[in-house]
Amino acid sequence: MTGEPPGLDARLVVEREAFRLDVRLRVAPGEVLALLGPNGAGKTTALRALAGLTPLTGGGLRLDGVPLEEPERRWRVAPEHRPVGVIFQDYLLFPHLSALDNVAFGPRCQGVPKAQARARAAELLARMGLSDRAGAKPRRLSGGQAQRVALARALATGPRLLLLDEPLAALDARARLDVRAELRRHLAAFEAVAVLVTHDPLDAMVLADRLVVIEQGTVVQEGTPAEIARRPRTDYIARLVGLNLYQGRAEGHLVTVGPELALTTTEKLTGPAFVAFPPSAVTLHRERPDSSARNAWRAVITGMESHGDQIRVALTGEPGGLPLAADLTTVAVAELGLESGAQVWATVKAAQTHAYPA
Length: 358
Fold this sequence. Notes:
Rossmann fold; 2 domains
């Protein structure tokens, strides 16, 4: 024993000509961490660094107190010798092997006798509800079945770190719902560290205990799904969780977010602050409304698209050009005669806003 706490303790620094990743991760055994971020943020680079597929140029990586990589000491454990299991986006099952032999492959590479490796594989497939598919080749498996075989294969070597790269991206919408629930159950039973990369906020919210949001190679926010959803700190996160977000300066119940726009909130703050509210809180009017809403400003419609059973209306506020999203029923859009380029008034009640320190 090293005397250090178990789990993952990493500072991942990867420098390239036009990009620098610098991310600190601490994950306890039994915890599922999701890395979220826009394309190009560095999520996949971080995952590859954890797997040992991309060498670190700085920082370090320890798992259960054991150093796996320390660039300053020129110490680096080869990927195949790390206690790490990886589930790739396309699963990468061996097409010529049965499900059973795909799962047994890892233990066999570790020197486990064939009969013992196949017994371990059969046990894992049974846990996944796939005993009847043990002899099937990957081409005979559904997307959900292939995903479970890939998970069983990753677990077969007894990893202390499980990495999942967009684990549900290869599934169609119907399969995702069931497989997501199954994967959550299996991850909840995993006793070591699990880290998943995803661009899908629903996958992250359902599967992860904690989220780390990366933008341009650095961590911009981390916390539980509920904390992230309630208090987004960047435009990307606000869009991810479906909120309008503005940053400004608070004086009491008023937050100034633009040259000529201040929003009234129920919270009382002083200093830099965020204001967030859902698109469903926005009401649109053709003329300046005579209502109890404390927040009202002019806006121009820049686009409309279906969003579930409603219409998501994109607007630019006037003055200041602040972006805004509003969710309206099809009937409301028709009654107001809304179209791209139309000028409207937007209102939001103070009680429907949420202000918090920036």
